[in-house]
Amino acid sequence: MSKPTETEQCIGSLIAVFQKYSGKDWNSCQLSKTEFLTFMNMELAAFTKNQKDLGVLDHMMKKLDLNSDGQLDFQEFLNLIGGLAAACHDSFLMSSQKRF
Ligand SMILES: [Ca+2]
Description:
The structure is a single chain. By secondary structure, this protein is mostly helical. It has a single domain, classed as EF-hand (Recoverin, domain 1). 67% of the residues lie in helices and 0% in strands. It has five helices and no strands. It is globular and about 50 Å long. The structure holds calcium ion. Residues 65, 67, 69, 71-73, 76 line the site of calcium ion (CA). Residues 65, 67, 69, 71-73, 76 line the site of calcium ion.
């Protein structure tokens, strides 16, 4: 088998991270609110530690939970990752524009 590409490795990592946190309770295909909070605090501490308002994560979970079942499935999780990636990309573009 040939070595996975960088993109394939990224996809594999996202699946592995999702499974690591979603597998903590009986429903291993979905992130419960507790699992979501654990994920945010463990994996995105740089983002969560700047949030003085505790309601922000609460609000994020509600917004991400498109079918309002109180759980985040993999697709809903990907919307979170996609949104954060887009925000990082935007701030990267802004900081590179400032330099020129
Ligand atoms: Ca859901």
